Amino acid sequence: MDVSMNVSTLSRQGVARVGDRRLDVSVVVPIYNEVESIPRLIEAIATTMQASGLGYEIILVDDGSRDGSVELLKRLALDRDDLKAVMLRKNYGQTAAMAAGFYYAVGDAIVTLDGDLQNDPVDIPMLLDKLNEGYDLVSGWRKQRQDAALTRLLPSKIANWLIGRVTGVKIHDYGCSLKAYRSELLADMNLYGELHRFLPALAFIEGARITELPVRHHARQFGQSKYGLGRTIRVVMDLLTIYFMKRFLTKPMHGFGVFGLISILAGMGLGIYLTFLKFGLGMAIGDRPLLMLVAILIIGGVQLLCFGLLAELQMRTYHESQNRPIYRVRDVVGGGSQR
Ligand code: UDP
Ligand code: MG
After folding, report:
1. Which residues pair with 23 in a beta bridge?
2. Long-range CB contacts (< 8 A, 24+ apart) of 49-52?
């Protein structure tokens, strides 16, 4: 596999450099209490990347470990010039750790993987090759995943199906940390909550070209998983957020407003019917449940409508306060490509 041949296509805005080193790839790994894995992890990444002939850096982000990972990382980072260690002040969670890594990464492509040796760095060049075919994001797919069946594989199967349905991005394995990105893509994205697993969905919202590749997966050798079943409910909440962002981020009124209007119109229709009963036919309507429904529909509808308007204002603030355009440009060709 000759990855070096493709180096030039990886870079769009010139080749990133640190000192006199060319940097094609930043490998970003979040670390939380993985002290036994770290030395092998670094060796494995370095061996693969050196063989690929690409310029690379390894960024290990310590997420508030308390098992000696910090001391080890500091020592190793001073020894090696391909290693950058970023130490967070406390444990923020995997998403935040990855975001910190992205901030310090300078490569044209960014590869992420787990720090527990469950992902295999040997797969990195394959992902980069795929990226070079013109994708913005290549996601790993743990086709033969080595985790507990009932507590991990089953929830993950359901989650993947659900996420695919809701976001419209059909990949098999959202949870796989081994992914490759073009760095411009990540520069456009903000991460919150546990959103790292939704990066493909967020990237899709940003108009990215996305694909997946089967990758190796090993059972955890050292330490233990940082997650249990409790993660499921948080993932579902994040999924709701993503769904909203995807549908209504730039047009909340289309969501809330439409429901509000339907509710008001239904309330008014039923209200007119009740008014006719009362004044046309002289019937008593004071104890009818329908009257209650009319009131709820109209009040609820007005609230939804106002909520939509507020969301419109909020959305404008969101975009304008950070000069965030409502579109993403892939390329500009000709005419000097300047505005
Ligand atoms: N991790 C982290 N902060 C946390 C939890 C996890 O940086 O609060 C890191 C962890 O060290 C590992 C990766 O995120 O490198 C994935 O965690 P884990 O292997 O426990 O998840 P699993 O593979 O079991 O889903
Ligand atoms: Mg793991």
Report:
1. 16
2. 49/25, 49/82, 49/121, 49/124, 51/125, 52/3, 52/4, 52/124, 52/125, 52/128
Q: What proportions of the chain, in percent to the nearest 5, are helix, strand and coil?
A: 50, 15, 35
* Single-letter code of the amino acid located at 267: G
Q: For ligand 1, atom 19, which residue shows the shortest CA distance? A: 225
Distance 224 CA to ligand 2 centre (A): 8
pLDDT confidence of residue 3? 44
User: Pocket around ligand 1: residues whose beta carbon is below 6 Å from it?
Assistant: 30-32, 34, 63, 91, 93-94, 97, 114-116, 118, 225-227
Q: Distance between CA atoms of 110 and 27, rounded to whole angstroms?
A: 6
Give the ligand 1 atom nearest the CA of 61: 7
Residue 108 pLDDT > 70: yes
From the CA of 316, how far away is ligand 2's center (Å)?
39
- Ligand 1 centre to CA of 33 (Å) is 9
- CATH domain 8-248 topology: Spore Coat Polysaccharide Biosynthesis Protein SpsA; Chain A (3.90.550)
If residue 27 lies in a helix (H) or strand (E), which one and from where to where? strand 25-31
DSSP code, position 268: H
Residue 67 scores a pLDDT above 90? yes
The domain segmentation of the chain, as residue ranges, is 8-248, 253-321
Ligand 1 atom with the smallest distance to the CA of 92 is 8
pLDDT tens profile 185-220: 998 788 887 888 889 988 988 889 999 999 999 999
